[in-house]
Request: fold
Amino acid sequence: MTKHTIKKVSVPHHAEKKETTSCSCGDKCSCCQCSSAAKVATMGVSALALVLAVVALIKPPCSSSLEKWVKGNPEVIDETMKEYYQKKDAERRAEERAQPKKAPADLVEKIISDKANYSLGNPKGKYVIIEFFDYNCGWCKRTNAALKEALAKPEAKNIRWIPIDTPIFGEDSERIARFVLAAGEQGKYAAMHDAVGDHKGRVDEAALMSIAKKIGADAEKMKKAAESQKIKDKLAANREFTKALKIGGVPMLIVNGNIHPGALFGEELDEVVAESAK
Reply:
């Protein structure tokens, strides 16, 4: 990045001789806004602050320097915008969690009473966590791993975790969900669910068959069951749940009757476990 320096000079300014500033970029102006552009790269500011800075910079003086800086530093703007939207998203989620919305009680009861849904943790637990997820979703995998670890704690003994397979990332996700549900018909849902979550790399059919063998399931039987209408109907029913709840993405959880948008781990999950033990 070009180093900008400022020095005082006397130049004609608006038909009068006035002392103004000269920028090392070669432009002359009363405020030398291009020096601000040079600082933006190291400013820990939000995208909003960046936009305001850019707006302030778009003036006839030094505009050429601004254009050069923007073209030469697109990654700075891109990263700053990402940080801004991540921050706004986190603020939105925090606000939603501070004022949780109740999920429709009848729908929650329908999910809980549906015997086609699998339960992890305590199958008779009164504190219910319903999770809509996709095996190809990174945040879902992180949430699943955290929930598995949390449910092993004595204080989480009252939690019933109901994972709802919600494949939204295309055919691969659909196939994985069908195989895991098919594993459930052999009493291997939890084992397959965990093994798929722990798998490194792409979970294609070959990987699913290999995982099935590792957990002691009949891989060929599982493959056949995965193509059954019963399994396909179950995923269709899951999609109806997401439509009813107007779920636009995953992970999405219903924690003790309250809608919890986004992933659940860390301090938030610790608070949930503590609440469940009351």
The CA atoms of residues 166 and 238 lie 7 Å apart. Strands lie at 6-13, 16-23, 28-29, 101-102, 120-121, 127-133, 159-165, 252-255, 258-261. The chain is about 55% helix and 15% strand.
